[in-house]
Each structure stands twice: as C-alpha cells, then as structure tokens.
TrEMBL record:
<dbReference type="GO" id="GO:0015945">
    <property type="term" value="P:methanol metabolic process"/>
</dbReference>
<dbReference type="GO" id="GO:0009055">
    <property type="term" value="F:electron transfer activity"/>
</dbReference>
<feature type="region of interest" description="Disordered">
    <location>
        <begin position="165"/>
        <end position="184"/>
    </location>
</feature>
<feature type="binding site" description="covalent">
    <location>
        <position position="78"/>
    </location>
    <ligand>
        <name>heme c</name>
    </ligand>
</feature>
<protein>
    <recommendedName>
        <fullName>Cytochrome c-L</fullName>
    </recommendedName>
</protein>
<keyword id="KW-0249">Electron transport</keyword>
<dbReference type="GO" id="GO:0020037">
    <property type="term" value="F:heme binding"/>
</dbReference>
<keyword id="KW-0479">Metal-binding</keyword>
<dbReference type="InterPro" id="IPR036909">
    <property type="entry name" value="Cyt_c-like_dom_sf"/>
</dbReference>
<feature type="binding site" description="covalent">
    <location>
        <position position="81"/>
    </location>
    <ligand>
        <name>heme c</name>
    </ligand>
</feature>
<dbReference type="InterPro" id="IPR009153">
    <property type="entry name" value="Cyt_cL"/>
</dbReference>
<keyword id="KW-0485">Methanol utilization</keyword>
<keyword id="KW-0408">Iron</keyword>
<dbReference type="GO" id="GO:0005506">
    <property type="term" value="F:iron ion binding"/>
</dbReference>
<feature type="signal peptide">
    <location>
        <begin position="1"/>
        <end position="19"/>
    </location>
</feature>
<dbReference type="InterPro" id="IPR009056">
    <property type="entry name" value="Cyt_c-like_dom"/>
</dbReference>
<keyword id="KW-0813">Transport</keyword>
Length: 184
C-alpha cells in the first residue's frame, strides 16, 4: 500500500541581518568602501542605525535624551585627544566650521571618519564603539558646535532655528523624552 508522504519543504529566503546600506560609506583617507561586517555586533541594528544607513542623517542630532550618553562616550573615547569641549588638543578642534576633511561637515562623512579613522593617532573606532554609540557621540560633537547656527548645515531647518552655539557648561535635563529615554 503506497502512502504518499508529501514533505512540505519550507522554502525561505535567508535575508541578511546586516542593515541594508543605501549609502556607500567610504574611508576618509583611502576612499575604500567601509565594511560594516566588522562592526561590533551590539548596537548594530537599532532603529537609529537603520535610519542613518539609508538617509545619512543622524536621527540623534539635538535629541536631548541622547546627548548625555553621547557626552559620556566623548569624554571616555575622544576628549583625551580632542579636548573636553572638542576645542582641539593633539587632535584638531571638532567644535568649529573648519574641517581638515571637508566631508566631516556631513554626518555621513563624520561617521565614516569615526568608523574608519583618519591619519596618525586617529585610529578606526569600529572595535571600540558600537554603531549606535557612534551616532550618539556624533550628536554630542555637533552639539558642541560653537559657531553660528546657519553654519550647522547638518541640522534640519527646524533644529537650526532653536540651535544655540555651545557656551561651555550646560546641565542636561535628567532623562528627558526622546529616542534614548530610559524606560522604567
Ligand atoms: C589617540 C588620539 C585620538 C582619539 C582617541 C580620537 N582622535 Fe580624532 N583625531 C586625532 C588626530 C591626531 C586627528 C587628525 C588626523 C588627520 O588629520 O588625519 C583626528 C581627526 C579627527 C577628525 C577629523 C577632523 C577634521 O578636521 O576633519 C574627526 C571628526 C575626529 N578625529 C573625531 C574623533 C571622535 C569623535 C573621537 C572619539 C570617538 C576621536 N576622534 C578620537 C586623534 C584622536
């Protein structure tokens, strides 16, 4: 007696977990395409990272809830070389409108420099910081900008209207609403 067994073969398409990058990010010095397979596994697929990979706009810019985390990362990973206000030390100032590499005026360029590094002691940060942390530290670097808001081309028109050049000390509110608000 023949029993036909129909094996249902679940055909599925394996979709890569790596965020699809609509933008091609390139190393600031060599122009080589940056490979995000090398990024730290955590913080790689947050909504902000996914959005950034397709738009090139940092969704954390001027989001008060993210700035404190960005500041903490800046103080532990960047300020030793760039100064605690980004005013420059052994590394160049990051808080004015002059860039050694003009592409750093865009968030796409700034991200590429942090991820892939530049010259001398500006090493690639992809093994030190998660992609999501890079976006937060970038938002803090942008917040430290001390020149006229009109020059803050990375901001949206709306953000530019309320942006104030960084004036030194500022007390950030405790856990304000926003994308990085801690849930209790
Ligand atoms: C060990 C020292 C050191 C550390 C740590 C460091 N940098 Fe740098 N950075 C440098 C140096 C030196 C340069 C200049 C490199 C060059 O001109 O190619 C530089 C260049 C840069 C530039 C390019 C600036 C321009 O004018 O175009 C950016 C942006 C930058 N760093 C951001 C960061 C951020 C953000 C961090 C922390 C995540 C960081 N750096 C950590 C030393 C450092």
């Amino acid at each position: 007696m023949a029993r036909v067994m129909v094996a249902a073969i679940g055909a599925f398409v394996a979709v890569s977990a790596i965020a699809q990058t609509a933008i091609t990010f390139r190393n600031t010095i060599t122009g080589e395409v940056l490979n995000f397979n090398d990024a730290l596994p955590e913080g790689k697929d947050t909504p902000a990272v996914k959005e950034f990979m397709t738009t090139g706009k940092n969704p954390y810019n001027e989001d008060m809830s993210c700035l404190k985390q960005g500041e903490q990362t800046f103080l532990s990973a960047c300020s030793g070389c760039h100064g605690h206000l980004g005013e420059g030390k052994i590394g160049p100032g990051l808080n004015d409108a002059y860039w050694t590499y003009p592409q750093n005026e865009t968030d796409e360029g700034l991200f590429s420099t942090i991820y892939g590094g530049a010259q001398a002691s500006m090493g690639p940060q992809y093994q030190n910081l998660q992609l999501d942390e890079m976006l937060k530290v970038m938002a803090w670097v942008r917040h430290l900008f001390k020149e006229a808001p009109e020059k803050a081309t990375w901001l949206t028109d709306e953000q530019r209207k309320s942006f104030k050049p960084y004036a030194g000390h500022e007390t950030l509110p405790d856990n304000p609403p926003g994308k990085c608000q801690a849930k209790k």
